[in-house]
Amino acid sequence: MQKFKYILPLLMTMAMLSCNKEEGFRTDRKDYDRYLAEKPIKTTSKYFELWDNKIKTDSLQLLSLGNVAGEYNRFFQGTGDIKYLKMAEQSLQKAVDIAAVGKASYFRALARNYISQHRFKEALTLAQQAEKMGSGVNDTQALFFDVHMELGNYEIANSYLDSISNMSDFGYLIRLAKWNDHKGDLETAIRFMEKARAKAESSKNNGMLLWSYTNLADFYGHAGRIEESYRLYLKALQLDPKNAYAKKGIAWIVYSHERNGTEALRILDSILKKHQSPEYYLLKAEIAEFLGNEMLKLESLDDYYKKVQNFAYGDMYNAYNVDFYINMKVEEKAMKLAKKEVENRPTPESYGLLAYSYLKKGENKKALEIVKNHIEGKTFEPAVLSQAAEIYKASGNHGKVEELKKELMGAIYELGPLKETQILSL
């Protein structure tokens, strides 16, 4: 927490300088309306059918297996339908099984698929198998960084980051940005992500451009640079008019910055007509609560619950489900899932969920113990710090509460309007 003594005054000064400009900024629905009317993504193409047919007629078509997996992954990104991520897994598993040459690349691709499924320990095993193959060393080192960051092994992750150091490499720059964001140094994270954006723009690679635009837009939002964030989401939509993540980013700006819940719901509903990711229903429930629409909130929570019953999701929604069960006053289920999430992914965020579950069960001492051992000084995520602040308050540690309250007041945009009252009452 010590570093906040230096970062917080800087952030507050920056916020005051940009405050008037950002407070006056408003989105314009004419900027994004045409993207909301986009038709759902097509889940086939002539190339996909060609590759798919080759798989069916010749099981040794390795190139086709890789291409089909890539298309399935694109379909998943575009629709949020979990079946496509699972089908990509099947194609990659088959490729791993039959490949005699280039096996390491298929191990890495399958590991990334597992990361998407939150199967982090299995992804680590695959990364280790890729390492044994000996080829694509830098790609494997980068994969190790990604997996260890997800598992909360931050010092190990940092050692892998050092091993791929190359300031002219896009992959290194985005990971360096992620590392600095993890450390709580948002200004440096933005600087490296801006360098990554410049690399992407010079390469004219659409995938790299989309990644840098949407991630930099997120960072700008966290830094209070709302208009810049908005412009980048629009640039992402110019590249990919169906991009649900960028539309959600604009919906968040409309909701959290402008406090226009009705328009935010309109944007969100346009996404939900074409995209199936369950978390969008949780955001819809939050906005409905902000608007005082209890019926819509309950309907949205019900829609979320029905979606996540799909067995194919596995552990992907454990963290969301802990929060869901806590809010629904089903503390025992929340506790069980929080413990599972800590086992799968022992990060400060997972421990935050566990500590918060103990708090809601009235076990304040256990909650505080977890905060001290696994959260304090180990994360700068506002959502986790707000949970920690509640636990400190319940334990009577008012000094810590005031310290965190000051930090959290600077993160209201990131946390959302509903959290503002809660933070003010700490």
Automatic annotation (TrEMBL):
<keyword id="KW-0802">TPR repeat</keyword>
<dbReference type="InterPro" id="IPR019734">
    <property type="entry name" value="TPR_rpt"/>
</dbReference>
<dbReference type="Pfam" id="PF14559">
    <property type="entry name" value="TPR_19"/>
</dbReference>
<protein>
    <submittedName>
        <fullName>Tetratricopeptide repeat protein</fullName>
    </submittedName>
</protein>
<dbReference type="InterPro" id="IPR011990">
    <property type="entry name" value="TPR-like_helical_dom_sf"/>
</dbReference>
<feature type="repeat" description="TPR">
    <location>
        <begin position="210"/>
        <end position="243"/>
    </location>
</feature>
